[in-house]
Amino acid sequence: MRPLQHPAINDVSVEGILHALSDSHRAHIFATIAAGSQPKICSAFLEISDQPLPKSTLSQHFKVLREAGLIRSERRGVELHNITRCEEINQRFPGLLPAITTALVTQKKRGAAAKARSGGQGR
Amino acid sequence: MRPLQHPAINDVSVEGILHALSDSHRAHIFATIAAGSQPKICSAFLEISDQPLPKSTLSQHFKVLREAGLIRSERRGVELHNITRCEEINQRFPGLLPAITTALVTQKKRGAAAKARSGGQGR
DNA sequence: ACAGTAGTTCAGTATTACTGAACTATATGA
DNA sequence: TCATATAGTTCAGTAATACTGAACTACTGT
Questions:
Q1: Considering only CB atoms, which chain A residues are within 8 Å of B29?
Q2: What is the model's pLDDT at position A123?
Q3: How far is it, in rounded angstroms, from Cα A88 to Cα B120?
Q4: Which of A93, A115, A117 to mutate to test the interface with B (most CBs of B within 10 A)?
Q5: Is 0.90 surpassed by the pTM of this model?
């Protein structure tokens, strides 16, 4: 098992960030890690959607996020503690991550609202 | 040849936008269209990189940008006039596109500076 | 040592992307 | 009208990525 690789902040690319976050599952994982103050472990996201995500898939998603420079993972015993690299990235590309996470939140709200309108059990 | 399809603004997704712009060529095409005040035709980007881009590939790139909702294409005789949908998108996801284009510009500048430092014909 | 947990790696499969060749559609000139 | 040229699309074969079950590594507790 080779050690975890994290790119230097200067090797982080906009395209890599956009690609990593262009997948719904990864975007959700990143947003969740970014929103919380505690590190999150990978297996916290096994039940991310209606279909439970296979753990090999989950592992790949974390690898993509890590190699894009979005998260930093640290082994703690048997588990991985994941935190974001928002501060570093925000220094390199000011405003990029906040704009994306805001857009994702906006989209989620709109989606929830549309769902409620079209027959969810809204009041 | 079927007519050009543009998604309604409410069907435009953050993931779709990020995916479309996660490719260097497409990011460059979009940035160029966004930066200019005149519509751009597809073939203006045939010589986008060192290797000339095949026109079938270019056509696909425009299709991806169009279907992501980033550009609007209109037939004018034999050519396609492409403009961005920045205003609409900025209304739906405020600040998202400016942040991405700013980041792309920043990255380009950094890259050019690094190139100059490491042996380009800097002053 | 054994069992349990967290995550990775591998390999087969499925999906997506790239691109040369053939094609459509429009414009222009003889 | 017919030939030619230009701009872009579609198709089909191939290449590259992504997904995922199974086997594996690494660590923890008993």
A1: none
A2: 43
A3: 28
A4: A93
A5: yes
